[in-house]
Amino acid sequence: MNTMVDLPDWIRRPARTPSPARGRVALVGAGPGDPELLTLRAVRLLRDADAVVYDALVAPEVLDFVAPHAERLYAGKRSSQHSMPQRDINALLVRLAREGKRVVRLKGGDPFIFGRGGEEIETLAAEGIEFEVVPGVTAACGVSSYAGIPLTHRDHAQSCLFVTGHLKEGSADLDWPALVRERQTVVIYMGLSALPSICAQLVGHGQRADMPAAVVQQGTLPEQRVVTGTLADLPRKVAAAGLRSPCLTIVGEVVRLHGRLAWFDPVGATLPAAAFGA
Ligand code: SAH
């Protein structure tokens, strides 16, 4: 049975009417991977864009919404190899907007969460270029949902911290006492290579060695893999499983719920971009 409904008229119209004579930039969150987690606004702006500047973490299917005539420019970055320096990306956005283009700067997840989105629009603001920001489903939310790990739960966690495990001079420089509080979930972005040191630091700062923790690789995508354990044994299990970036680490009692609440079947997952009729 075909259950597809027609999209309402308002979503078919261009994002801004009439289209501005001057160029503008939309800083758009692409979500964590599954293209169906894009916002309607993201889809509309992608469809109307003259140029799209995108990152490594953006799923290829998301670009199916871009019109064939639009320029597609890759500005991907990985922590070990910066393919385009940040200042060049900022300058590129300014140049494209000055050419009168409707530019979409597409970033994985949410542009304001560990995405340097703030830096990019500071340049646009300084240059007097019109911009908007479209939020996306950040990895912590998308990945935890698809892994069946509620980040808060009345019985287990009343707060949740998002931190980066990105290494600076070989170690993650974090506020460890804040990370080991009771009844709190900690979500660590970019923490795969520092995982052994992060787990050791948490235990060293008073966290229980048997505190449940999980690492989720490529959450929300058909390649999703979830490895669960405790702070004591997770690094070994993750190494044995050979997980690859991007990975998100979740630490807290809520991880126990994964056993009962995991619902996403990565093997059976299909990429549904065509449902939008793009
Ligand atoms: N702005 C993005 C985060 C960029 S930092 C957001 O809001 O989600 C990049 C890090 O995000 C990765 O190293 C990884 O820790 C995490 N991440 C992004 N997508 C992910 C995914 N599908 N699965 C697991 N981790 C992901």
Supply the key terms:
alpha/beta, Methyltransferase, Cobalt-precorrin-4 Transmethylase, Domain 2, 5-stranded parallel β-sheet, 5-stranded mixed β-sheet, disordered C terminus
Short note summarizing the structure:
The chain has 9 helices and 10 strands. It is of the alpha/beta class and 278 residues long.
Please tell me about this protein's structure.
- The protein is α/β, with parallel strands linked by helices and 278 residues long.
- It has 2 domains: 129 residues, 3-Layer(aba) Sandwich (Cobalt-precorrin-4 Transmethylase, domain 1), CATH 3.40.1010.10; 122 residues, Tetrapyrrole methylase, C-terminal domain (Methyltransferase, Cobalt-precorrin-4 Transmethylase, Domain 2), CATH 3.30.950.10.
- The protein is 26% helix and 19% strand.
- The strands form 2 sheets. Strands 3-2-4-1-5 form a 5-stranded parallel beta sheet, sandwiched between helices. Strands 6-7-10-8-9 form a 5-stranded mixed beta sheet, with helices on both faces.
- A hairpin with a 7-residue loop joins β8 and β9.
- α3 crosses α4.
- The longest helix is centred in the first third of the chain and has 13 residues.
- The radius of gyration is 20 Å and the shape is globular.
- The protein starts with 8 loop residues before the first helix and ends in a 17-residue tail after the last helix.
- The structure holds S-adenosyl-L-homocysteine.
- The site of S-adenosyl-L-homocysteine (SAH) has 23 residues, from α5 and β10.
Q: Rounded to an integer, what's the Rg over CA atoms? A: 20 Å
Q: Major sheet: order of its strands?
A: 3-2-4-1-5
Number of strands: 10
Shape: globular
The number of helical segments is 9
Domain count, please report it: 2
Q: Considering DSSP H and I runs of 4 or more, what fraction of the residues is helical? A: 25-40%
Strand-residue proportion = 15-25%
Q: Any idea what the CATH architecture of the largest domain is?
A: 3-Layer(aba) Sandwich
What is the highest CATH level, the class of the largest domain?
Alpha Beta
